């Protein structure tokens, strides 16, 4: 992807939607099917994918760095319970 033309921040929106719908059939079903458990977090998932793509292709960080130092950006935190968090992207999905 990045070997032909460098991605810019302007490219990330379309790229994020494309990547998000191809993460896994299970994730697509859970986040993009009405009345599913995580349907209310689909916007947060797209933002997490956008962030990951920006870190990988614009900032040129590697997956281990993102996982170790930027993981808060790919989690969803409940504002009513800050100790509770939900992993929007898993480590193996960052490697895809």
UniProtKB/TrEMBL annotation:
Helix-turn-helix DNA-binding domain residues: 5-96
A Pfam family: HTH_44
InterPro entries assigned: Spt6_HTH_DNA-bd_dom, Tex-like_HTH_dom_sf
GO MF annotations in UniProt: DNA binding
Highest taxon of source: Eukaryota
Name of the protein described by the UniProt record: Helix-turn-helix DNA-binding domain-containing protein
Organism of derivation: Gymnopilus junonius (Spectacular rustgill mushroom)
């Amino acid at each position: 992807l990045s070997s032909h033309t460098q991605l810019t921040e302007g490219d990330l929106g379309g790229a994020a939607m494309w990547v998000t719908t191809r993460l896994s059939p299970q994730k697509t079903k859970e986040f993009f099917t009405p009345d599913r458990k995580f349907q209310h977090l689909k916007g947060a998932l797209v933002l997490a994918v956008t962030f990951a793509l920006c870190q990988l292709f614009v900032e040129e960080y590697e997956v281990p760095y993102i996982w170790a130092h930027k993981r808060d950006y790919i989690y969803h935190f409940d504002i009513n319970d800050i100790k509770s968090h939900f992993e929007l992207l898993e480590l193996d999905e960052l490697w895809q």
